[in-house]
Amino acid sequence: MATLAAAPWFRARLIPNRHSLLRYRQSICFRRRSLSVYALAGDEGDVRVRFAPSPTGNLHVGGARTALFNYLYARSKGGKFILRIEDTDLERSTRESEEAVLRDLSWLGLAWDEGPGIGGNYGPYRQSERNALYKHFAEKLLQSGHVYRCFCSNEELEKMKEIAKLKQLPPVYTGKWASATEKEVQEELAKGTPYTYRFRVPKEGSLKIDDLIRGEVSWNFDTLGDFVIMRSNGQPVYNFCVTVDDATMAISHIIRAEEHLPNTLRQALIYKALGFPMPHFAHVSLILAPDRSKLSKRHGATSVGQFRDMGYLPQAMVNYLALLGWGDGTENEFYTLEQLVEKFTIERVNKSGAIFDSTKLRWMNGQYLRSLPSEELNQVIGERWKDAGIVTESQGVFIQDAILLLKDGIDLIPDSEKALSSLLSYPLYETLASTEGKPILEDGVSEVAKSLLAAYDSGELSGALAEGQPGWKNWVKNFGKLMKRKGKSLFMPLRVLLTGKLHGPDIGATTVLLYKAGTSGSVVPQAGFVTFDERFKILREVQWESFSTNASLSAGAVTH
To answer: Where is the Glutamyl/glutaminyl-tRNA synthetase class Ib catalytic domain (predicted)?
Structure first.
């Protein structure tokens, strides 16, 4: 609901009629064809929302969340989700950016009901194709007296701003053309003086809206002043385009970022002047960085395309974006798009800013990644490994076993490359020389190494690993008895000697998989894989005394 209190022609309550249907239709000539214009306001069920991005760059996560909230509201109310491209900034708008926005929205699963590539009864859906419509309504406002021609030069306008600044007043228009005579106007037209169309704002009065998120918001008219709706080059100004588009496309609810809240006053005046019913407004809070500043490129990735290229899943992005400022009142954090449609209400959207936590997004993506059906997960990661030149085939037993072993440490698909490469490597010397490796050396790892070499040379270890996990379990049980070790005292030195690392997934499954990697031909030779033969060759050449000496020297340096 919105209320305007002002001069006689503005004394009206601007409330969409919920009991009757308003249909306004005009036909105008447009590039040799007729363009039908509709403005529709009906029952609460006739919900029409829009997302109207400017194709001047990539789709920001803030814009994506706005699109998502519009989509969820439309679907939850059985309404329509319209996509409109606001490309009136001819210098910055590009078709490449438009295509990127459409691609990102499609990737997120936000299918629009009307718009580019689909059409609809309220098109065209690009502002650059609607200029005849804007000119038509600008002329209508001129004829009704709500708009006048302003012939002020840039120098005159700048002088007005300077005077207002000195007087500490709002920079409102104070030029003479608001009250110019018809004779004065015709003289300037005859001279060919450039002019703008300036909207006549009432001197007294106010606008009050009941924002669906922020509650009651009001403005006084005297803070605004007469504003331009058409530039001297014939191009319409943003607020005029948006209002005409929303009205003629019968948009019932405008859900947009809070940075557009100040535009509402201008748009409400235009709605009323053209005789269109006012839509409902809902202004969504900004997405903030961890330092509570506006999220920007300096904080890292901010566009949907960047997150997609980084390996994020669309279902994780949609889920996380929905939680930035909305919740269903429960502790649940995971929702499919269908569940969000079922749960979403505009009343539960928070009016305070939401912090974008990239760590939580990454964690959430890992949860979604690991919950994929095993066939899909194996295919996605297997293809990634093959494309990276690590494995020879993107499927098979080795791929399945490797993913099963490593998936708990993979939050993003690209992480899988590092995980597998790390598994296949053998940084034994670096580990033994590290500070963390010192306790292993002191625990007699060299004695374990001698017995392990003997087990490998005899074929006993290889035979056990050929039997898989059961073979490993039997072997390690007997090896522990031989060494009189168990638990951490047994498995930590074995992990270091077999994998070259202090940490990693289950040592038994890891050892069996490394054995398969060397016997199945699944790993590309140039992938940095150190085979068991090579590992035991390195192990055989270790000079344990040198590590003991280095450890003693380090201890002495600390003591003194």
So the answer is: 47-363
- The span from the CA of 461 to the CA of 88, in Å, is 72
Name the β-bridge partners of 40.
Answer: 23
Give DSSP secondary structure letters for 7-55. SGGG-EEE---SSS-EEEEEEEEETTEEEEEEEEE--TT--EEEE---S
User: Out of 161, 165, 297, 473, which one is annotated catalytic?
Assistant: 297
Model confidence band, residue 214 (pLDDT cutoffs 50, 70, 90): very high
Instruction: Give the tokens for residue 407.
Output: 């998936």
List phi, psi (to 5°) of 545. Answer: -65, -35
**554, pLDDT greater than 80:** no
Beta carbons of 346 and 213 less than 8 angstroms apart: yes
DSSP string, 379-448: HHHHHHHHHTTSBS-SSSHHHHHHHHHHGGG-SSTTHHHHHHHHHH---HHHHHHSTTTHHHHHTTHHHH
Distance of CA 443 to CAs 174, 326, 483, 494, Å? 88, 54, 12, 12
Place of tokens 């002019």: 195
On the question of pLDDT at 59 being above 90, the answer is yes
Are the beta carbons of 236 and 88 closer than 8 angstroms? yes
Which residues fall within 8 angstroms of residue 533, CB to CB, at 6 or more apart? 518
pLDDT of residue 557: 39
Q: Which residue has the tokens 């969504």?
A: 284
Mean pLDDT of the chain: 88
297 has catalytic annotation:
yes
